[in-house]
Amino acid sequence: MDFEQTWAILASAFTQIHEKQASKLSFEELYRNAYKIVLKKKGDELYLRVAEFERDWLSSEIERRIHKELPPQLMNALQGRSSAGSVGDDQVRTQGERFLRQLKLAWEDHQTCMSMLTDVLMYMDRVYCADTRRPSIFTTAMSLFRDCILRSHVRGDDSWPDICGTLNHVILDQIRMERDGDFIDKHLIKANVYMLEGLYDSHHEVEEEKLYLTSFEYEFLASSAEFYRALGDRLLKESDAGQYCRETRKRIDEENDRCRSTLLESTTPKIQKVVEDELIRYRMKDLIESESGVRFMITNERHDDLALVFDLEARVDPRKPELTKALQKIILEMGTNLNDAAQLGAAAEAPEDRAKAPADKLVNQQTVAALKWVEDVLELKDKFDAMWKQSFQSDQTIHTAIMRSSAEFINSHPRCAEYMSLFIDDNMKKGIKGKTELEIEALLNKAIVLLRYVQEKDVFELYYKKHLGKRLLMGRSLSIDVEKQMIFRMKMELGNNFTAKLEGMFKDMTLSEELTAGYKGYVARLGDADPRRIDLAINVLTSMTWPVETTNSAPDDARESRLKTIYPPAMERIRQGFENYYKEKYSGRMLDWKGNMGTVDVKVTFPKVPSKGFKERRHELNVSTYAMLILLLFNDLPSGASLSLEEIQARTNIPTNELVRNLQSLAVAPKTRILLKEPMSKDVKDTDKFFFNEGFMGKFHKVKIGIVSAGNRIENDRERVETEKKNNDSRGYAIEAAVVRIMKQRKELSHQQLVTETITQLNSQFKPDVNMIKKRIESLIEREYLERIEDSPSSSYRYLA
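Given the sequence above, the corresponding structure tokens read:
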């Protein structure tokens, strides 16, 4: 076998294959020729000859064709600008497409030809290449395409970029045009991308050395970062925040589509990160704080735009720090505005004369401001709850931020606990009227949510007990079932200890009904059938369960507090009779009568008044117990006689403040003026005289006379001081109990640990003051519950059993 002769045959065939004239070739004969060469141990020479043939073909034929598609105009345009620049010339764009098309054709032809050559040289690949561990001839030919074509410089000038660099620039320019809204040939670019993916930077053919990664992708990501950096600057200046977010979402989707249709999907996460960094991560703070940012969106209820902001920041950071921070700041500012408005309302004077309205409907301006504050807080909460669900996908991080900032501004209001109790009180008395079960349930849920925010739950309990007590005793609650539902919800939220006394109040009311029925049976068994006997409905309250404010009237001085109310004989007999019955039923218990909380139905006959044409009139008046005592004094007076305030007080021992309020209701309020006052004025003085109003004319047979200022209202400064003192005393007892529980269990503990554990235990009720804890520890040491450990290196205590 003559090697040169055989090679000449093979070389001629290879030329015809490259020239696409292989239809008349016998591939079986060509295979045998190659087989003979390898069999004669000439495989090495054949391998080198084939490689040299391909190098010559690529360098002489293919390189020339490709360079021909790179005219100076295109090369100058590519050289004279960055990859993110603008061609601005359709001719240059067309030339770039022709270059891509020629390169695509050259690559596809090279692959096709080398597949045919590989069939001819199959035995060489299987034997020679395998034995010598050389790359297959196909792999070598692909590397030659890389070296001879892609790494060749245009016109052989090293100052010009090589074909691979030119390819990168052309593709990047096409992508830039598509980003600007033009149409490009995606399939043409994809074919060239596949070429880059199929070639490697070295003959090792490892994944990380693909030309697509080492040559193109790096430049693509760098130019994209530059493009989106400039776009971000422009959008922030020219667009509002909503448009910015929509444009960003559109750009991210476009890049994802581009990777699927034009580049490779492996680039998707990388280009996503570039876009997210340049348009979101580095600009989110400026976007949120812009004039059209989150504050504007919240104010104008742009929920869709807020959802876009949430979605964008969630892409770059699941904690969403900038959005969370902005929301907290906005909620705090809005809440602070509500607090300021409520405090202004509470500081204002009530414009109307309080004596002109019925007491059960009178709520002064300060109380209106208190109720409005709670309603505004609920409205604000509903606003952000809806936003949380609609715009923020019920995200837990956002929910926590909303709750924390809401709790912060709510607790910054010094009277939040009192206002919330007033709000529930107002709804229990009239707010739930006409509401469906679902609406009532929603209202109760809102009240519990607000209570969850309150830090000083012990203060809320104090006010709630006082308001609940008045509702129960005065029959103001619209539904006892709803009251019990509220207590049950509080129990589920805060535990048994919080609601124990509240439940005790309901228990007392139930027992009182049983006592009233039992007393009536007791009287019936005595055989007293007097038709004029006064019917008695009694409420017996446990002193430790009911708040003192509910059952006690506040005397003006200590002397008044020691005086016993003087009841008329008929009432005194009833009172004594019930006490006897009660002592028989419960031995060892003392009853303390609270006249300020009772009501009486009094039948009153008003005489004829011929001068006014009035006939005799009969009315049934519902008045307070004290008002009844006042009215009964006028039974024994002749027509036209009067009593002064001092005389009334001397004959009844009613505390001065209660007496004044009842006289205002009876003699000043225009619709319930049972008495006449001389001189007529809003204020009641010691020297004022009171007459029975014989000319009273009521529209209805039954007339209810409320007590001035009897409705629940916000406390005045004096009452507030008393409440704070009482609450501090209660907290002191709670702190002592917590300290003793902890020390009884731990036996010995350092001062810091004891303080920390005490705060932790009491945090659900209130936030304990450290100085108060220290004082209570000192008090326990003085009373020998604890002792100091003298030889301890740090301040420590020991429990004394």
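The longest strand covers residues 599-606. Try to locate this feature in the token string yourself.
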